[in-house]
Amino acid sequence: MAALHGICILLMVGGVSSKTTPDINDKVATGVLSAKLRTERMYSKVWGRQGVLGLNGGHFHAILVTRELVETALQTQQAYRMSWYLPRWLLNRFYLCLLVLNCWSSVFIYSLLFKKNEARRRFACPLCDCILDLVSCVGIPFIVVLSYIDQFNADMAGFEMERWYSESWAARILNESQMVLVTSWSDLMSRTVFSLGLISTTTSLKKLLRLVPSGRDTRINCAPVNIKVPDKPTTKGPALNSGSFGLRSRSSQLVLHLVHLLFAAWGVLVLGLHIQASLQPELPQCTLQVHPWAVSEPACYLAVLDCYRLGISGKMNEVEAKWSEFDRSSVVTLVMRHCASLEVPDMITEFHRVSGIRVYNSTIDNWGVSAAITNTNHPDFATQICAAYRSIWTQLG
Questions:
Q1: Helix (H, G, I), strand (E, B) or coil at 59
Q2: Contact between 319 and 288 (Cβ < 8 Å)
Q3: Which of 12, 116, 197, 317 is found 20 to 30 A from 354 (Cα to Cα)?
Q4: What is the Cα–Cα distance from 326 to 18, expressed in whole angstroms?
Q5: Per residue in 87-116, pLDDT tens?
Q6: Burial level of 299, CB count in 10 A (0-12/13-18/19+)?
Q7: Rg (CA), the chain
Q8: Cα(359)–Cα(305) distance, rounded to whole angstroms?
Q9: Domain boundaries, the chain
Q10: Cα–Cα distance between 84 and 75 in angstroms, integer?
């Protein structure tokens, strides 16, 4: 992703330097200039302001709607992943507000703010997309990384080993790193789309921004001349309106209105899912709780069964009752501690995403074969710390 932005910067720098560097070989310079002109003409026909895919092109609305559909779908997927991996309420709500406002921006821009100004509509729509693409591509990973900079040890080229023994810190960084690193091909595709969208929108906005000369620099003194003006109505240049650029028929306008209503409903749906997730109760056994969408039970990626704090001894029915209160598939780290008589139920096989299990200061009375840790039920399992200093195994099935 950084390479794409770097190429754009190099092209801009190269364009400036080419204007200031004198030509050494006229023949070579002529060939380079002709190739450059051909490339510019081809680019202008496709991506130029009046090109097929340009801001003033006849397919502007169709291209904009298609791009917004793809980007909004991927941004919704990213918001869904954030609801699973980030326990930071402020960051989740900030991104969700941007996503909802972007869904509603089409309705506001086309129906309320710039209803009769096509030029401003064509500037406002790419601007909204550019802001959300910037936050999706750069903002979220940057904020997550920034929170760990002061904890990073440059001499060790990593984090201090003592931090990894902290249950909450280890679980948090393992989850939040998935919002920074590429974890799958679909994740790579979405990040690529965000980067390309950011480059496309910034390039389009750059073409619309021009420096307006001041009146003092363009004032010319001239003698008054009497000119006879014919009594004919003057004609202006072609106006930029929806009728002359891609929305000639009523059916096209109707389709555009329906798409805007779809985006508005999309925003309402996303907002409703977030509100439903935020209403999930806080549980004492969920040390780090997240609020994923469309989940009927509370979710946490650090579950701590503290028998002393919960007022239980660790019997099988007590453990099952506490574990059944939250969604087991969301747990990454499972901790059991201070249990006088711990019996591990078969429900532990439902913790499919768990990567580490820790047992502290507990007497394990029963951990049967049916509750074993297997690759089938726990494919991401990596570490198990048992009997840290006082755990006692009295019976193994």
A1: coil
A2: no
A3: 317
A4: 63
A5: 888 888 888 988 898 888 877 877 777 777
A6: buried
A7: 30
A8: 9
A9: 34-208+250-275, 286-393
A10: 14
